[in-house]
Design goal:
flat, 38% helix, 368 residues
C-alpha cells in the first residue's frame, strides 16, 4: 500500500511539473510567482488538475442517486428554476496552488530553456565540513549506538556460549556486545558566487522597466543559486552617481536626473576588490539600462573599466537594455562595437515582459 502511494505521489508530481513547464513563459512574463514566494518555497497556481479524493459512505442507500425520482429531476424546487444565464457545456476553470521548491523551479527553468550547467571558476576559502558514517567500532557515545549490530553480536556470543534458548529466544546484550557507528570528517572547499546587479534609475527608467528587471533578476537568482552552494547578491543603483542599496530599495526606488554609467562600474569594482577575491569567487555582473549615457567621454571610461577591471574578474558581464520611450539605446551599440567577439560580454534587448524569457536564455545559455 505504501509503495502504491509513493508511485501515485511521484506520478502526481510529474503531472504538476509538466503543467508548470507548459505555462512557464506565462509565469515568467507576468511575475505572479514572485509575490507567492515564501522562503525556499513558491506557491504556483496550476489549472486543470483534479486531486484524488476519498469518498465516505455510511453504507446505507441514502443521499443523491438513491430514492424516488428519475434521472434529470431537480434535487429540489429551487434548483429547477435555474439562474439568469444559460447553462453551458464547458467545464469551469479551477486553479490548484501547489508548493514547489526553488530548486525544483530552477530545474524546470533549465529543462525548458535548455540551460547548460555552470562549471564553477574558483573555490572559496570557506571550507565545508561533512561527517560521513564509514564503519563500526566498539566504543562511542550512546547516541551513535548501532542497535542491529549490537544485537547481532549478542546473539553470536550467546550461540557460541550455548546459552541461547530457541524455545525462549531472549537476547540480552552486555557491554562487550555494544557496537557504535564510526565516522569520518571530510573537508571540501565550497564554490561560491556573487551576483552584482546594477540598474539605471534615472528619469527615463519607469516603473514598468524596473518591474521587468525585478522579474528577470528573480529567475537569474533562482538558476544561479541552483548552481552554487552559496550565492551573495549585491545591488547598485545609479543615475549621475552610484550607490549600493538593499534589494527592496533596488526595485522600489524612484529617481530622476542624468545618467553616468561609469559611476556604477567603479562602485562594482570597489566591491569586488574589497570583498570578493577573484580567485575564490565566481562573479556575475548584470547591468540594466535603457541605453542612455551622459556623453561619449563617459562611455569611453565605461569601456576602459570593463576591459581593465570588470571583465578580468567576472565569469560573465551581462548587459540588458530595457526599452523605454525615452531611452536612445546607444549604449548597447557601444558595448557591441567594443566587445562584440568577447564571450564574457553578453547583451540582450528586453522590449517588454514577453521578451524576459529570451533574455534569460541569452544571459544563462552559455553556461559561464
Amino acid at each position: 500500500m505504501s509503495l502504491r502511494i509513493d508511485l501515485d505521489h511521484a506520478r502526481f508530481k510529474s503531472i504538476v511539473r509538466g503543467k508548470i513547464r507548459q505555462g512557464l513563459k506565462r509565469y515568467i512574463s507576468n511575475g505572479e510567482l514572485i509575490g507567492k514566494q515564501g522562503g525556499e518555497i513558491v506557491s504556483i497556481p496550476v489549472p486543470q488538475i483534479d486531486i484524488p479524493r476519498f469518498l465516505h459512505s455510511s453504507g446505507k442507500a441514502q443521499g443523491v442517486g438513491h430514492g424516488e425520482g428519475e434521472p434529470g429531476d431537480p434535487l429540489d424546487e429551487s434548483e429547477g428554476e435555474g439562474g439568469a444565464g444559460k447553462a453551458g457545456s464547458a467545464p469551469g476553470q479551477h486553479a490548484l496552488e501547489v508548493d514547489v521548491s526553488l530548486e525544483e523551479l530552477a530545474d524546470i527553468l533549465g529543462e525548458e530553456l535548455e540551460l547548460p550547467r555552470i562549471e564553477p571558476k574558483g573555490q572559496s576559502k570557506i571550507d565545508e565540513r561533512k561527517d560521513r558514517y564509514t564503519g563500526i567500532r566498539q566504543t562511542g557515545p550512546n547516541s551513535l549506538r548501532h542497535f542491529k549490530r549490537s544485537f547481532h553480536q549478542a546473539l553470536r556470543r550467546q550461540l557460541a556460549a550455548g546459552t541461547y534458548n530457541t524455545k525462549r529466544p531472549i537476547i540480552i546484550p552486555i557491554k562487550d556486545d555494544m557496537r557504535f557507528k564510526s565516522w569520518k570528517t571530510s573537508v571540501t572547499p565550497r564554490s561560491n558566487a556573487v551576483i552584482i546587479y546594477m540598474m539605471d534609475v534615472s528619469g527615463s527608467m519607469g516603473d514598468e522597466q524596473k518591474d521587468i528587471v525585478r522579474i528577470e533578476s528573480f529567475w537569474i537568482d533562482t538558476w544561479l543559486k541552483r548552481q552554487y552552494k552559496d550565492v551573495s547578491t549585491r545591488f547598485i543603483v545609479h543615475d549621475a552617481s552610484a550607490r549600493e542599496v538593499n534589494r527592496e530599495h533596488f526595485f522600489r526606488t524612484k529617481e530622476s536626473g542624468g545618467t553616468i554609467i561609469s559611476s556604477a562600474y567603479r562602485l562594482a569594482n570597489q566591491i569586488i576588490e574589497r570583498e570578493f577575491p577573484i580567485n575564490d569567487w565566481n562573479i556575475y555582473l548584470f547591468h540594466f539600462s535603457d541605453g542612455d549615457n551622459w556623453g561619449s567621454d563617459d562611455t569611453k571610461v565605461c569601456m576602459r573599466l570593463l576591459s581593465d577591471k570588470l571583465l578580468p574578474a567576472a565569469n560573465a558581464f551581462c548587459y540588458g537594455q530595457v526599452e523605454s520611450p525615452y531611452g536612445s539605446g546607444q549604449f548597447l551599440k557601444d558595448i557591441s562595437a567594443h566587445f562584440g567577439t568577447d564571450e564574457r560580454v553578453i547583451t540582450s534587448v528586453i522590449k517588454d515582459r514577453d521578451a524576459i524569457v529570451d533574455s534569460i536564455k541569452d544571459f544563462l545559455g552559455k553556461g559561464r
